[in-house]
């Protein structure tokens, strides 16, 4: 039985004897065990990070950039190995795993431009003989707490940019699929990163609370459910930390009567059922506007019949299992609730049976029609392959659905009208918007983040927002007067 240790100071270390089993979600078999770290492990990670910070923060941005470039090459060479690890522990298809690694790799690539990204501003003669300029300096030790659904992409939205800015970084990955993070740390060391700059510590809520309470950690980045995001934000902020905590979602995709229906259906299918719906940017609500509803539901129903649900080892699989037995039951409970609340169940994924994988955590694609905004399956994040169709009389009613929902992560609209799309992108109260694009995840040089109950904190992730989050701004005002006998000035200087 393989045992997964922490990666601290460039080595595989753990002092704790407590372990957590990791399951193959397609078979319900234990494939490895991960150490649940204790105080001694955590203190060692902190000490390693503290010792490495001074030298790393004084390393030139150009040298940091070259290490990032080496790292990018190593990840590309090992993308197949990384994808296999993700698929084995998470259950998503190999191609989906590769795609998620690539989206994380884009942030590594973006971070390679750190010499330019850290450039400040300079103003000459802000006053007579006085110049002023700004610089951005690292925070210190930064920490990331990441979810199970993207064990490569989400961590890579955090630590490469933080480290490029001159910080040391402690990553606490999900205990359900931690192996990818360990390999990413190994590759970073191979790329030339000094020991202790990037440490990976495994654990559960106990380690999360130690991260929150530690006086040595300056910032926390988090992605997960809204209740946990709010908990981390409130507790960490009280401890004086900078926080970006991304929470849950209930992403709506609006389909206007003038939309290209086939394109809309293709977008909905991939966004609702890809990765078994375990994405914070998954489309979980399709809003059918006007008289398009019946045809839209019929086309989605037809598309669902063609989906191949199978383990990631099957090359023709469109979607695999959910992450755990407990999460499968949670999703099934939501489907039961939808039936109880009188939503119209068009496709039922509760009793899917895959020969040879009867013990796997599979839930088939599920489709509800005639869902109303007061139903539980509409209000709460299901995080599974469950799509709710809501019928709206007109565009204004559909826009109100989007704006009145508690979550504000992502949304999309399919339409042929530039006027409607412009109005929607300007007036929806959502952080990320797609126009004829089903999953509007920004590229690395823009920033990722929602509104309302989907983001706690002032900064979104990666892009320029990430640079601002992982650095402190310092403004310098300088004068070198020729007259050494200037007396005290008691009036606020103005020129």
Would you mind describing this structure in some detail?
This protein has 495 residues and is α/β, with parallel strands linked by helices. The protein has helices spanning 39-57, 61-77, 79-90, 94-111, 114-117, 153-156, 159-164, 179-190, 205-213, 226-238, 261-273, 293-305, 325-340, 376-379, 395-404, 418-427, 463-469; strands spanning 2-4, 6-8, 11-13, 19-24, 29-35, 122-127, 130-138, 141-145, 168-172, 198-200, 217-223, 242-246, 251-255, 283-289, 344-347, 366-369, 386-392, 407-408, 410-414, 432-435, 451-452, 455-456, 471-479. The strands form 6 sheets. Strands 15-16-17-14-13-19-20 form a 7-stranded mixed sheet, sandwiched between helices. A 6-stranded mixed sheet has the order 10-9-8-11-12-22, with helices on both faces. Strand 9, helix 8 and strand 10 (198-200) form a beta-alpha-beta unit. It is globular and about 85 Å long.
Question: What's the structural blueprint in terms of helices and strands?
Answer:
Blueprint: E1 2-4, E2 6-8, E3 11-13, E4 19-24, E5 29-35, H1 39-57, H2 61-77, H3 79-90, H4 94-111, H5 114-117, E6 122-127, E7 130-138, E8 141-145, H6 153-156, H7 159-164, E9 168-172, H8 179-190, E10 198-200, H9 205-213, E11 217-223, H10 226-238, E12 242-246, E13 251-255, H11 261-273, E14 283-289, H12 293-305, H13 325-340, E15 344-347, E16 366-369, H14 376-379, E17 386-392, H15 395-404, E18 407-408, E19 410-414, H16 418-427, E20 432-435, E21 451-452, E22 455-456, H17 463-469, E23 471-479
Parallel strand pairs: 1-5, 8-9, 8-11, 9-10, 11-12, 13-14, 13-19, 14-17, 16-17, 19-20
Antiparallel strand pairs: 2-3, 4-5, 6-7, 7-23, 12-22, 15-16, 18-21
């Amino acid at each position: 039985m393989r045992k997964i240790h922490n990666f601290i100071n460039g080595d595989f270390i753990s002092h704790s004897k407590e372990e957590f089993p990791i399951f193959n979600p397609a078979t319900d078999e234990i494939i490895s065990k991960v150490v649940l770290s204790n105080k001694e492990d955590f203190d060692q990670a902190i000490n390693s990070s503290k010792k490495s910070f001074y030298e790393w923060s004084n390393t030139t941005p150009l040298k940091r950039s070259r290490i990032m470039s080496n790292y990018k090459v190593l990840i590309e060479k090992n993308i197949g190995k990384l994808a296999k690890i993700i698929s084995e522990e998470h259950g998503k298809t190999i191609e989906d795993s590769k795609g998620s690694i690539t989206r994380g790799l884009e942030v590594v690539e973006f971070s390679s431009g750190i010499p330019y990204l850290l450039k400040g501003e300079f103003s000459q003669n802000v006053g007579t003989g006085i110049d002023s300029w700004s610089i951005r300096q690292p925070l210190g030790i930064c920490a990331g707490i990441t979810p199970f659904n993207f064990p490569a992409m989400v961590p890579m939205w955090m630590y490469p940019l933080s480290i490029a800015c001159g910080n040391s970084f402690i990553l606490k990955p999900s205990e359900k699929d931690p192996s990818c993070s360990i390999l990413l740390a190994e590759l970073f060391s191979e790329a030339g990163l000094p020991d202790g700059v990037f440490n990976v510590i495994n654990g559960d809520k106990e380690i999360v609370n130690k991260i929150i309470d530690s006086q040595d950690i300056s910032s926390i980045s988090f992605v997960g459910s809204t209740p946990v995001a709010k908990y981390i934000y409130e507790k960490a902020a009280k401890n004086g930390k900078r926080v970006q905590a991304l929470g849950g979602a209930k992403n709506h995709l609006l389909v206007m009567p003038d939309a290209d229906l086939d394109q809309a259906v293709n977008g909905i299918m991939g966004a609702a059922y890809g990765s078994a719906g375990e994405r914070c940017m998954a489309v979980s609500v399709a809003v059918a506007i006007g008289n398009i509803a019946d045809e839209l539901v019929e086309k989605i129903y037809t598309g669902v019949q063609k989906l191949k649900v199978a383990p990631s080892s099957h090359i023709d699989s469109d979607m695999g299992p959910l992450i755990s037995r407990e999460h499968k039951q949670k999703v099934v409970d939501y489907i039961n609730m939808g039936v109880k609340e009188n939503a119209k169940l068009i496709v039922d994924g509760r009793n899917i049976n895959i020969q040879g994988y009867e013990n796997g955590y599979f839930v088939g694609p599920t489709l509800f029609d005639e869902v109303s905004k007061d139903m539980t399956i509409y209000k709460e994040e299901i995080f599974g392959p469950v799509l709710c169709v809501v019928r709206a009389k007109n565009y204004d009613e559909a826009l109100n659905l989007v704006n009145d929902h508690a979550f504000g992560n992502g949304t999309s609209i399919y339409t042929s009208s530039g006027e409607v799309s412009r109005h929607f992108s300007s007036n929806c109260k959502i952080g990320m918007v797609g126009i004829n694009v089903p999953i509007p995840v920004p590229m690395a040089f823009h920033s990722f983040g929602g509104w309302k109950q989907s983001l706690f904190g002032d900064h979104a992730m990666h892009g320029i927002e990430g640079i601002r989050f992982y650095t402190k701004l310092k403004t310098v005002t300088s004068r070198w007067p020729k007259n050494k006998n200037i007396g005290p000035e008691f009036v606020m200087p103005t020129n």
